[in-house]
Amino acid sequence: QVQLVESGGGSVQAGDSLRLSCAASGHTFSNYVLGWFRQAPGKEREFVAAITWSGISAWYADSVRGRFTISRDNAKDTVYLQLNSLKPEDTAVYYCAAETEIRARLGVYQTYNYDYWGQGTQVTVSS
User: Fold this and answer.
1) Is 112 helix (H, G, I), strand (E, B) or coil?
2) Rounded-to-integer distance, Cα 118 and Cα 96, Å
3) Which pLDDT value is given to residue 122?
4) pLDDT of residue 28
5) Do residues 18 and 9 make contact, with C-beta atoms less than 8 angstroms apart?
6) Which of 21, 30, 113, 123 is buried most deeply by CB count within 10 Å?
7) CA dihedral 91, 26, 104, 18 (to 10 degrees)
8) Under a CB-based contact definition with an 8 Å cutoff, are residues 7 and 74 in contact?
9) What is the DSSP letter of 101?
């Protein structure tokens, strides 16, 4: 079955950068959308970014557009999220998610359109 393993989280200062990785396995992902969501304490899980495995389409939340970049390396079956100019409000557990493109395109911003999730990686940004 699909397995997603995130890595790369950590504790940084405001303005710093991090790169999160999501290693995908257990399936052929050529027709999948891979997404990143985050969940801060006491808040609902929210969309951050998503990308088609082909790389043709990508989506970003308004709150991260221009600071975060999603990319993928098909040879490594890995999706990355580059986080630049980090702010304290970016503090959250970041989750990788995957779903078939047909289903994900019904609403890439919605958690309920993704069946496969990683365990999450903590990002903490201090001021």
Assistant:
1) helix
2) 5
3) 98
4) 84
5) yes
6) 123
7) 20
8) no
9) H
Q: Which residues of 44-76 are buried (b: 16+ CB within 10 A; e: fewer)?
A: ebebbbbbbbeeeeebbbeebeeebbbebeeee
Query: In Å, how far are 31, 61, 63, 85, 89 from 124, measured between CA atoms?
Result: 33, 19, 17, 13, 9
Q: Would you place residue 50 in the very low, low, confident or very high pLDDT band (cuts 50, 70, 90)?
A: very high
CA distance 37 to 81: 11
Cα(127)–Cα(125) distance, rounded to whole angstroms?
7
Out of 75-79, 99-103, 114-118, pick the least confident. Answer: 99-103
Q: Are 4 and 117 in contact (CB under 8 A)?
A: yes
**Which residues contact residue 34 at a Cβ distance below 8 angstroms, ignoring those fewer than 6 apart?**
22, 24, 50, 51, 53, 72, 79, 96, 97, 98
**Cβ atoms within 10 Å, residue 122:** 12
- Candidates 22, 28, 25; CA nearest to 8 is 22
Q: Letter for the amino acid at 53?
A: W
CA angle 63, 101, 43 (to 5 degrees): 35
